[in-house]
Write a structure and sequence with these properties.
233 residues, mainly alpha
């Protein structure tokens, strides 16, 4: 792990970075948008049911759903899905390069594997986490507005007025901070698993599995720590 902590000068590789932004970000849009859309619909149904059961009315459903989506579900679910999609791929790619001695070849060419492989994927992952979090929240809230109009009789204007009343700019800023942290966790843990991969095809698969497991666990722990820092202190 000390390899990742050394002071180093990073070199900008525009083409590779743009490619990673496309592969990690743009190509992840369908699965994340569809997943968050249905999560937003499910959340409206669950909150409406429980509020009618306990409070005997559901007027605060838009407020609670929006706050929960912006503060927690948006960045966390988006980045967990992103982990399952790109974390294993990054670890397997770097692990395969180690097994086939491509990393040694880069070193012989005086190319730092960390600069060459990790930095573009880090930039692409952070870009994907930030942009997809905002897109997924917008889609989830839009789907929630449509369902609220059908099930709760709440107009789109009333829905979004309530959302904007309860969701403040600091909530959005903290959401973006979470997305940035989670987007940083994914490629660094996945890359570490790839660089530390043992020789053999089975070891590459194990590295990919461990990358998803450890990155997902790290995101959950980091979410708790950030939530405690933002809202409990």
């Amino acid at each position: 792990m000390n390899y990742f902590l050394k002071n180093r000068k990073f070199r900008w590789r525009r083409e590779e970075t743009l490619e990673q932004m496309y592969v990690l970000g743009v190509q992840s849009i369908p699965i994340i948008v569809v997943s968050l859309a249905f999560i937003g619909l499910m959340m409206i149904l669950e909150l409406a049911f429980h509020m009618r059961l306990v409070l005997k009315h559901d007027s605060l459903v838009p407020a609670f759903s929006a706050v929960l989506m912006v503060r927690e579900l948006g960045p966390v679910i988006t980045c967990l899905l992103l982990t399952s999609r790109i974390g294993a791929g990054i670890a397997a790619e770097i692990g395969s390069m180690k097994v086939t001695e491509q990393l040694d070849a880069l070193k012989l060419l005086s190319i730092d594997p960390f600069d060459y492989l990790v930095i573009p994927r880090w930039i692409g992952s952070v870009f994907a986490a930030l942009s997809l979090t905002m897109i997924s929240i917008a889609v989830a809230l839009g789907g929630g507005a449509l369902l609220a109009a059908q099930k709760l009789g709440t107009s789109s204007g009333e829905y979004f007025n309530t959302v904007f009343f309860f969701v403040k700019f600091p909530d959005v800023l903290r959401c973006l901070i979470k997305a940035f942290v989670f987007g940083t966790i994914i490629p660094f843990i996945a890359s570490y698993q790839g660089f530390s991969c043992e020789l053999g095809s089975a070891a590459v698969g194990e590295a990919a599995t461990q990358a998803v497991v450890r990155a997902s666990l790290s995101i959950i722990i980091a979410d708790f720590l950030l939530t405690y820092l933002f809202y409990a202190i």
